[in-house]
What does this fold into?
Amino acid sequence: MKKNLWVVLLVLAGVAAAAWWRFHVPSETQSVVVYVSHDEVFSEPILRDFEKETGIRVRAVYDTEETKSTGAMNRLMAEKNNPQADVYWANEPIRAEVLRQQHIAAPYLSLNADGIPARFRDPQGYWTGFAARARVLIVHKDENPKPTSVFSYADPRWRGRTVIANPLFGTTTDQIAALFVLLGDDRARAFMQGLHENGVKLSPSNGDSADLVARGQFAFSLVDSDDVVNRMKQHEPVTMIYPDQGADEIGSLIVPNAAVLIAGSPHQDAGKKLIDYLLSKETERKLAFSDAAQIPLHPDVATPPGLQPIESIKIMTVDYAAIATKLQAIQSFLKSWAES
Amino acid sequence: MANARWATTMSMIEFRSVCKEYHGRRVIATLSLKIEAKERVVLFGPSGCGKSTVLHLIAGLVIPDAGEILVNDELVATAKKNLREPQQRGVGMVFQDLALWPHMTVRENIEFGLRAKRIPKKQRRQRVKEMVDLVGLDDYLSTKSGELSGGQQQRVALARTLAVAPGIVLMDEPLSNLDDASNVQLRKEIVRLHGDLGFTLVYVTHKRDEAEALRARIIFLRCGRIDDASSAVR
Amino acid sequence: MEKRVTLAAGALALTVIGLMPVLMIVASTFYVAGEFSLTTYQALLASSKQLAPLMGRSVLLSLSVTLLAMMVGTPLGVLLGKTDLPLRGAFTMLVTLPLLLPPYVIAVAWFAVLGSTGWIGRFLAPTTSEFLSSAFFGFYGCIGALSTAFMPVVMLLTIAYLGTVNPRLEQAGLLMSRWPSVLWGITLPLIARAILFAAVLVFLLTLGEVGVPTFLRYPVYPVEILTQFAAFYDFSAATAAAIPMLIITAVILVLEIRLLHTSALELSAATIGRRNAPIELGRWRFPLFGLALVWTLVMVALPIAELIVQSASLSAFADAFSRASDSILRSVVFAAIGATLLTLLGFFCGYLIHNRTLPLWRSIDALALFLFTLPGTVIGIGLISLWNRPITNAIYATPAIIILGYLAQYAVLPTRMTAATLQRIPPSLEQAAQLCGASWFMTLRHIVAPLAKRGLIGAWIIAYIFCLRDLGITLVVYPPGFDTLPVRILTLMANGAPSLIAALCVILIAVTLLPFFVGALWQTRAGRPP
It folds into this structure.
């Protein structure tokens, strides 16, 4: 009996060694490491297809904005001096911009980016946008008249009946920062103050906001277009409204995914191949017609049902680099705003 | 015992001004004593007078705060330092709670010390046989030690201690949990074994009749000192 | 000699694995742009007006959860560990389940039950259900979910230590009095240390918990640290914000050590293998059974049943396996390796603490507990800054980094369990082996380890469970392509189908229970007469 424990320990040590050998990955050239902030449910199939087509093994770290995990982005920053990732697949260009400003990104101009409008690309190729979401209003069917603008949040008609995701995270942060860039600090602060005065509630994420509106607990909310498309597919009583589409209005903020090559990473060539693949029309098509419901940026890729083609949307004219800078400047304001 | 291998070495014990404190309480106060080889000595005194500590000091389980301890004229411990580890002193001990290993059979208990000394299996078996014959436990070799009666456990503890033929055997109130009949009988056997095997025996008890029945030199301990007056009267 | 060297090596290992990463990040808070600076602390001080109420909330929540967990866990432990209540084993298993899951899963499941479309919410008037869900989202929901998750800590430790009480002490009491007063006057005071330790664990686990308060929108201090990391990528601010948590932890630790040392109660030594017969409940048997049944149903069975119902389709499980079979395998392998190494490390550290061989035993004990209570994110970031160098890529770029994280964070569990187990082995058993001429290793192998076997297996299982459910560290340090099941569940939760998530949670439960089944098999085999 007394020997048993040691035998068990030994066997376990053996298993450990075997598992180590099995799981230890030599730094082969035919692999690529990608950190992904796009939802794993949608991004993983794309990466598997890439593996199948190229034979290059993809090793991924996933992260989601909804869970506010401290994954990919913090790791990229923490690993700055010894990068592990070759590619960062950001779900919005602001983080990509932050990486460029922190000298973590490397420039790469992919041939597959031809056709993607220049406004969705960094001119030097530090990041390239693809497959976008629009920031839209999700409105409950019974709501009449319907809101048409982000400024409807401050309209007394909807006092206490609107909800917005926590502006400390995700695309909502981008949206607020964009408003600061567009309107200037004073008007933007006044607008945010107006939200408070009009009783706007905070939810943890865009998905929660969309659910709350679908359940009829709130009249409308500012969310991402894919949130609305999915609720509509499930026949929830909601509609999608692109805000501020009038001739003299500011337009809808478009948030593309962004592919970033990481500076000094171990597999630069494989990384470039992966970026080429992500920027391809095929990938845009997959992301458009899956539940990810992204808006294609290549002009000759069809737009999925429920969404407008990119050309027909009045797009908010704003420089993503400026948003990234502004975002870092208004951090403490957003924090105290969210807490008050 | 015909086997020369198991001959007992002659061992004398000497304490020179040994002190020991626990948590600021002085348990042994400048104790000096000498025990000759093959001598039979009883340490006698009230509870808490430091009797057990003396045994632990001899065995090396406790390190003195001051003074020197010699076994066979060799310095084994000095202030705050063990020069010889307990394994190397040739000391055997029967503990107050007997300290039989409950997960082992009687055979394994007795055999353990022989295995530690890397004795070949055949000789080990033979020695175990000698020991159980010596203490009269033949039928119980594959019984777990926890399943024996108090007197039988006592014998196992004795056999285990004697198996490696230590030069010094320490006994810490070994008979305290036995009924009177077994107590008397085992006492006699201890005296017999001491006569046959010729080790140095240091026996601790707080019972006067037990101390007297062993027909040994009695050292009275009181508050960590030898009570010379009482010892002299003996 | 070999003893001192080995134990020193164990202590050193814990220090290097656990303390170095923490020192690394503490040091980094003093360096801004490569120069010594206190600006991060000035910023921390400046925001103390916002931080103080957050910390107040954290402490209040932790105190409430601890109190509730003690009030429920101790009687439940006595009931399940000491009486003839029917189906004790099944109750123990069921009530323990929530501890095995990441706590946010409990909150999610509860919400599914209470929400307006849930099993309970459905039958309530809309106003009542709205009131319930608004109460649930906040302080009370946090208390409910976290005390369900952590109450088993108190219960299990109570059961475990009840088994160590010398039955003779209780028998002596029973001659003069009846069971209730014996329990109250003799048994419970004897295990008071264990209950106190359980309380400290629950308090600190709650203090570091982020998943549940985030989900239930109750802003507490550690969420603020996470916000610093997640929203602003502000490494040094987040680390500086962690310092007050370190201080609170240290204060609690000092208090615990004080209390332990003024307590003169020692667990009895010679209790191996003997136990008193269970307390006969008599006419209370069925009322108490009913009470336990209701509690188990409401707190545990309903939420978990909800999970199972949500997952109950073949396609959900097929999807779960196609998505996560690698992660499941990795989870089990990593947890098994982690648990084995933890048991080894914990054995030596526990031995050191029990035996007090080296004067630094108390620091090792405190260090292990301290690491356990640090938020996993902090340890993770520390591991990155320590190991992410080209030279150490063999560790950083492989699962070894996850294992190191487990060792750092969870060492206290096997350490304390070993120390508690060793305390039950009379020192004379080890001394007798020594005097027989056995070396220290031989004594360990043939005497100590076999006698401590049950405790060590218990330590292994606990370590396995904690490794398996770990999220904080794994999420931050897992090498690309090496995620574990809880990480995968979390990342798939974003837009993943609820049935898929539920199926993965059910798989997680099954995988967690694996060693229990193996252990039960072992027990039945070992229990058989030869």
Summary: The two ends of chain B are 35 Å apart (CA to CA).
